[in-house]
């Protein structure tokens, strides 16, 4: 009996250890349990406890959002308003899923910078952003040294997570509303934005072996095969599917099926109310992407944590 109990305990411990070795991914959208029009933000948690916030945008409810918890590093794919965050909501479920409401103004600073300052998190940026964002962090009362440069071909390590940037085919103009002097007014009067360097995607390599491609906003680009698939060997992806401004559902499915070739993918940046009561709506871009993809497609339902093992398979919360 003692030996049986010991064996059962060892098996239980082994299962618990294996379960704990998963990477946790929690979408932070505007409406609880749904995938809505402005949803971009996600938190990734490595088995070692390192927590990474990706593209906070509008839907993280400021640095005090209880869903954030500890944040070690903040990633920003590019400075468009829906990723940088000129405003956020004071409470969950404001407005409609297809047209959320954000009543707390963050400009001329941003939701992203305020989160960096509030969480004292490292802020990894590329392009020319390492000149711009230290000033913004300082203006918000934070330490400018939190901003770290990370450009193409390089890699940073936070905790046990390795983070690299990869090219994205998109634009990266900073809205003049994020500038707090007359330069912003002059740019706005001339219909211009402030260029701040190229946009980017990311590859995250976690301690359990999971390698995640974060597309940011991008069209189809050869680097998705040459760099993301062949070099980094990403086995899971978070892919933008919204169309017009970047890949639509058909193009995104092509990227997943023939270029990145991950084991699974989370849809992102659909620019629509993709779900109702947590269920995928038919005749949506998200439904079209799921139908066209040859690998499992998971919905980023706000507040619902998914867990992925080292091979890119979703093993919990799916």
How would you portray this structure in words?
- By secondary structure, the protein is α/β, with parallel strands linked by helices.
- It has 8 helices and 23 strands.
- The chain has helices spanning 2-20, 81-84, 111-119, 129-139, 182-189, 223-229, 249-260, 285-292, and strands at residues 23-27, 42-45, 51-54, 73-75, 87-88, 95-96, 99-100, 104-105, 122-125, 147-149, 155-158, 161-167, 173-174, 194-195, 200-205, 211-214, 236-240, 264-268, 275-276, 279-280, 297-298, 306-308, 314-316.
- The strands form 6 sheets. The protein has an 8-stranded mixed β-sheet with strand order 10-9-4-3-2-1-22-23, with helices on one face. It has a 7-stranded mixed β-sheet with strand order 11-12-15-16-17-18-21, covered by helices on one side. Strands 5-8 form a two-stranded antiparallel sheet.
- Strand 6 and strand 7 (99-100) form a beta hairpin.
- The protein is globular and about 50 Å long.
What is the fold's blueprint, element by element?
Layout: H1 2-20, E1 23-27, E2 42-45, E3 51-54, E4 73-75, H2 81-84, E5 87-88, E6 95-96, E7 99-100, E8 104-105, H3 111-119, E9 122-125, H4 129-139, E10 147-149, E11 155-158, E12 161-167, E13 173-174, H5 182-189, E14 194-195, E15 200-205, E16 211-214, H6 223-229, E17 236-240, H7 249-260, E18 264-268, E19 275-276, E20 279-280, H8 285-292, E21 297-298, E22 306-308, E23 314-316
Parallel strand pairs: 3-4, 4-9, 9-10, 16-17, 17-18, 18-21
Antiparallel strand pairs: 1-2, 1-22, 2-3, 5-8, 6-7, 11-12, 12-15, 13-14, 15-16, 19-20, 22-23
Helix pairs in contact: 6-7, 7-8
């Amino acid at each position: 009996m003692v030996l049986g109990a010991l064996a059962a305990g060892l098996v239980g411990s082994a299962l618990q250890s294996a379960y704990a070795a998963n990477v946790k991914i929690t979408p932070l959208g505007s409406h609880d349990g749904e995938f809505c029009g402005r949803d971009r933000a996600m938190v990734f948690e490595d088995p070692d406890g390192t927590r990474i916030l990706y593209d906070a945008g509008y839907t993280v409810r400021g640095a005090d959002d209880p869903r954030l918890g500890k944040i070690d590093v903040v990633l920003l794919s590019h400075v468009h308003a829906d990723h940088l965050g000129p405003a956020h909501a004071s409470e969950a479920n404001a407005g409609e899923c297809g047209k959320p409401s954000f009543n707390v103004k963050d400009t001329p600073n941003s939701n992203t910078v305020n989160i960096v300052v509030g969480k004292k998190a490292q802020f990894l940026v590329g392009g020319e952003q390492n000149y711009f964002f230290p000033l913004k962090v300082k203006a918000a009362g934070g330490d400018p040294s939190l901003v770290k440069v990370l450009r193409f071909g390089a890699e940073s390590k936070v905790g046990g997570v390795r983070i690299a940037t990869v090219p994205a085919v998109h634009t990266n103009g900073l809205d003049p509303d994020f500038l707090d002097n007359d330069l912003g007014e002059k740019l706005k009067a001339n219909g211009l934005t402030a260029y701040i360097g190229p946009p980017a995607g990311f590859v995250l390599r976690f301690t359990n072996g999971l390698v995640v491609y974060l597309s940011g906003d991008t069209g189809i680009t050869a680097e998705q095969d040459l760099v993301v698939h062949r070099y980094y060997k990403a086995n899971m992806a978070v892919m933008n599917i919204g169309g017009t401004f970047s890949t639509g559902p058909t193009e995104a499915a092509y990227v997943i099926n023939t270029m990145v070739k991950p084991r699974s993918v989370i849809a992102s940046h659909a620019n629509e109310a993709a779900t109702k009561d947590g269920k995928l709506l038919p005749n949506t871009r998200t439904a079209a992407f799921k139908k066209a993809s040859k690998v499992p497609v998971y919905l980023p339902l706000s507040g619902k944590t998914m867990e992925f093992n080292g091979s890119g398979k979703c093993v919990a919360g799916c």
